[in-house]
Structures are given as C-alpha cells and as structure tokens.
Design brief:
Radius of gyration: 33 Å
Shape: elongated
Strand content: 5-15%
Number of strands: 7
Strand order of the largest sheet: 1-2-3-4-7
C-alpha cells in the first residue's frame, strides 16, 4: 500500500486505470479509446552509473497495436533540474519503445507548482532552443472540485483524485464528505477499503484534511480492514490506555485514602462494625474520605467519623 501523499498521487493511476481517460479529457487530448493498461519498469537507468527513475510508468495498448507510454510524475515544488530529467525520460522512451507514444503527465497539488510545471522549458541556445518541453499538468486549476454526491458515486476514481489534488484547499472537507457518502453507496467492501487507504495516504501531510477523513471513517458506518482501520484501532487503543491510566490513578488514590483511614482508626482504637467497615471500604468519594480522616483525628467512636457528607464550605472571611 502507498505510504505517502507523493506516492498516492501518481500511483492512483496504477490502481484506477479509469483515470487515464479522465486525464486525457481534462487535458483536451483525444480519447485513447479501449486500452489495456499494464505496469512497466520505471527504471530508466542507462548502463552508465546514472540512475533515472520516473515515479510511475505505464503502458496503454490500443486495439490498433499502437498505444502510449505514460510517465507520471508527482511534483510538490519547483525544481530547476526536472526539465532535463523529463526531457531525458521522453527521449529515452521514444527510442526504446518505438510502437508507443511517450506522454509526460505531471501531477501537482498547488497552483504555483502547476503553473511552473507546465513550462515551456527550453533546452539549448537561449536565442533558439533545440528542444522545448511542455509537460501535461493536472492540478487544482483543471481537476474538478467534486462536491456532488451523485457525481462522486458515478466516478469514484476521479473523486478520489480530486481529493488528493485539492488536499490543501480550505474546503477539502466538502470533497471528503461526498467521497465518504459515495463510498457508503458502494457494496464492495474491498473497494471501500482500497479507497479509504488511498485517500488517507494522500492526505498524510495535510493534518486538517487527514483528521477530517479519520473522523468520517471512524463514524461506525464503514467496515474497514486496511491501514486506515488499523490506525483507527490504534487510536482507540491509545485512548483506552489513557482512560485506563486515568482510572488506575483514581483507584489508586482511593485505596490509599481508605488504607490510611483504617490505619488511623486502628491506631486510635476506634472499632468498626462489619457494616461500617463495608461502608468505608466501598466509598468512592475522595472528598468524603478526606472529611472522615479529619474527623477520625479527634472522634471517640466510629459513628462520629462516618458522617454522611463533608460540610459545605462557609463564606470566605475578609
């Protein structure tokens, strides 16, 4: 399972191949048609010791024997070195896979990075570049902000991708609410777990959004098994441990007060009937036990100690 927002963004295309068609439509590209999607080794390293690795590389094979090689990159900030790496990826793929058209798709979660990633990047002489690179970019400006439950239920992959892309938007809760509502309509428990885990991964560095999603998933309306479920269980265990520690400390204080009071009564030769002993040892009121201890310092009999309640404090003197 993915373990970071960076991984979740580009690997969503591996998990949900339907996103290719959505991406082409959002970018104004011709519909690729019926395609078979398969994973390709994303290591583009040459024999020389220079490692070049694209985030996700997938092959789309069409019915005509030709298809696309989709190089998907998650980008979180400007990087001056990226243009050269991306140009290398495209040139390498065009040479190695002659029957597939290489396409570079950059995924961004903030507008500034998306605008930068769109280029164009010119490589060569400043007066006349030999190569101009213009990546396709999906980001907050062209990925829809989905807040309609019916639309979300009809296209869960795009709704998930919308949530990942807009994770830093102050209104992210609106998308997460409709995604959760759409998942409630899904009868496939395994699919719900996959979507829940992917969403949690993509929101890991957005605390407000991540907390909102955890609350939605812990509402008791979902039967989850993935790492989201384990995280919720761990939160519950931790809360239980905290509560247990608090309860243990309270019980310890009560037992200490009871033992001290019994020792004081014994030291002053004040006997207790069986009923009085039971009444004292089952008391769970720390204030009342403190009141009894104070009375036991001067009382001559148990009846004078075990009064019903401590006196109400009087008005403060000035």
């Amino acid at each position: 399972m993915v373990n970071s927002p960076h991984e979740a963004l580009h690997r969503a295309f591996r998990q949900f191949p339907e996103l290719f068609g959505r991406a082409f439509a959002l970018l104004g590209l011709p519909e690729p048609g019926a395609t078979v999607v398969s994973d390709v080794n994303c290591d583009l390293t040459e024999v020389r010791p220079v490692e070049r690795r694209v985030d996700t590389l997938l092959r789309l094979d069409g019915p005509d024997g030709r298809g696309y090689l989709l190089a998907v990159e998650s980008q979180t900030a400007d990087d001056p070195e990226k243009a050269r790496s991306w140009a290398y990826y495209l040139a390498y793929l065009a040479n190695r896979y002659r029957d597939h058209r290489p396409v570079l798709l950059v995924l961004c979660r903030d507008r500034a990075t998306a605008r930068w990633a769109a280029g164009p990047f010119r490589i060569g002489h400043p007066a006349g570049a030999n190569l101009q690179l213009t990546p396709f970019v999906l980001g907050p400006d062209n990925v829809p902000f989905i807040t309609d439950v019916e639309q979300a239920a009809a296209d869960l992959p795009l709704t998930l991708f919308s949530a990942l892309t807009h994770s830093s938007d102050p209104r992210i809760g609106e998308i997460l609410d409709v995604l959760a509502a759409a998942l409630k309509k899904t009868e496939d428990d395994d699919a719900v777990t996959v979507y829940a885990d992917f969403t949690a991964s993509g929101l890991a560095d957005s605390p407000t959004a991540a907390d909102h999603w955890r609350k939605l998933m812990s509402s008791g309306l979902f039967e989850l098994r993935g790492f989201v479920a384990e995280g919720l269980r761990e939160e519950g265990r931790e809360e239980g441990r905290d509560e247990g520690r608090d309860e243990g400390r309270d019980e310890g204080r009560l037992q200490t007060q009871i033992e001290q009071l019994l020792q004081l009564l014994d030291a002053r030769d004040i006997p207790l009937t069986e009923a009085q002993h039971h009444h004292l040892t089952t008391c769970r009121d720390t204030d009342l036990l403190s009141h009894w201890f104070t009375r036991a310092l001067t009382a001559g009999a148990a009846d004078e100690v075990l009064t019903s309640a401590p006196p109400e404090p009087g008005p403060a003197s000035v």
